[in-house]
Design a protein that fits this description.
Blueprint (H helix, E strand, L loop, with lengths): L1 H24 L4 H9 L2 H4 L7 H11 L14
Amino acid sequence: MKRFAASLLGALLLAGGLATPAVAQGGGDLQGKLDKKLAEGWIKDPLWITDYDEAKQKAGESGKLIFGYFTRSYSY
């Protein structure tokens, strides 16, 4: 039992040590980073269409297919 407890403790310490740099890098000015990213040209004037009806109309006019990418957040 002592051997198991020591192994478990060692694994937890190792996992905690590996996670520390990731947590340290996560700080900073997140709102500033978001604002900077949203100000970039490829986001302000995108080449893609976000309205389904508009995409459907343009696809019909040009004879092209619609490429759709759907995602969601699992955070509540």
